[in-house]
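G., the chain you wanted modeled:
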Amino acid sequence: MDHHHHHHHKAGVRGRLRVTAARRRAWQQQSACCKRPARRDPVDTVRKFMRREIGGGHRRPPRPAAPSTSAFSCPEKFRNFQLQEEYDTYDDPFVQLPLAWNRRRIIEIVAARDLIFALAECGLCGAFNRTTNKRICHLNISPDEVIRSLFYNKNNDSLITVSVYESDRYSSLKCRTTPIEYIRRGQLHDGFPLFETESLKYPGFVEFDDVNGKVLTFSAHDSTYKVFDLKNYNFLYSICDKDIQEIKISPGIMLVIYQKASNHVPLKILSIEDGTTLKTFTQLLHRNRKVDFIEQFNEKLLVKQDKENLQIIDVRNSGLIEVNKTEFMTPSAFIFLYENNLFLTFCNRTVAAWNFRGELVTSFDDHELWHPNCNTNNIYITADQDLIISYCKVSGGGTNDADDEGQEGSRMGSINMSNIFTGKCVAKISALDPTLMIAPRRKGDTSRSTIRSSVSDALEDITALFYDEDRNEIYTGNSRGLVHVWSN
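Predicted structure as tokens:
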């Protein structure tokens, strides 16, 4: 969903990359025929990456270029991480799961307090208690419910699921919110449905925006966008206009992109609080070039057309900076780092950080992503936005990387933590590390789950990753539906 029904947590995206991605995902997972034609996935940027709300207009002063004191820059935090637990989303001694819920990869992991939620590609979602290490329940409240995406709403300590149902041929998104306390007690039926007034049939979506504490819905049948308060789900205002191509959310504002005319695209900037228009303008375009993306970040507009330079426009004074197309390739995803005025781009398997003067600030050593096209569910950026944690290819110690795949098509990667300001890898969890092992069980500890995988198994085919900053634990999910806990 995060990218699809996962819109900005669109449809429940995981809040990491730019929203559009999320919206797309919810529908994409459902069936290939749902895919929109070759639209880029601008990653779920805001959601995970921007978990912290940014107050009205006052923002923290920019940090110095390379904060060295940050807790996250210290490799000590990640020293001696071991494999602690293994949970199986599918293994249920009491319930014979329907056939449709066969073993599929984990696509999203979300942690809240001491609970861990793991969503599999088939739409089955398991909830695990990290204190008892038992599975509490499956979040699916009926056998025909296919959960597309998850969103932890920290405003009211509840989990929102975005689902489709076989009974209506998977045709519309349904949202439900359940307080974490109820889930902990297994009282799933005490949750309640959200946005029932909206018809969220394809290409409709729901997007959760943590930065502003808002929800954006789109009902396609009447071309209506609505904004709700994320704290209490109250309806705030609606925007109805068939000519809107897309809406993108930034701190405090929304960029409304209209259908493009032959040589320009009309744009509006609205206040996120009440939908009032703050600015109306048009952006000139090269006539016969497709638009790769239009993105907004505070007062900067980023516009890129096929085979053209990247343009960074200051919407206050129309100042323009161009970045040569040979230096800036169109990424498959962005993540905007509001805390330090940078944005990350994901191109094939490489990550880079840029500033809004169009300068490449960081290229990362030893951070070659395992998955070629960025899906933010296997990347995590810390709240201070100084560390990126990703599932990466193992860099052979001094050997030619091109040979790596020759090792009988090694399916094993490593979990790398890199400093966003320096590009240096500060720590990693790798099977090549002789000290990495399954943590011994403490005397008298009966809560420990049974770990059947080896450390190498647990580092194979990782398809989802989440870092719990409060607990200093990394959770990974793999193609077999298993979840692993790594900590020291």
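Residues 252-329 form a domain with the Thrombin, subunit H fold (CATH 2.40.10).

Shout if anything looks off.
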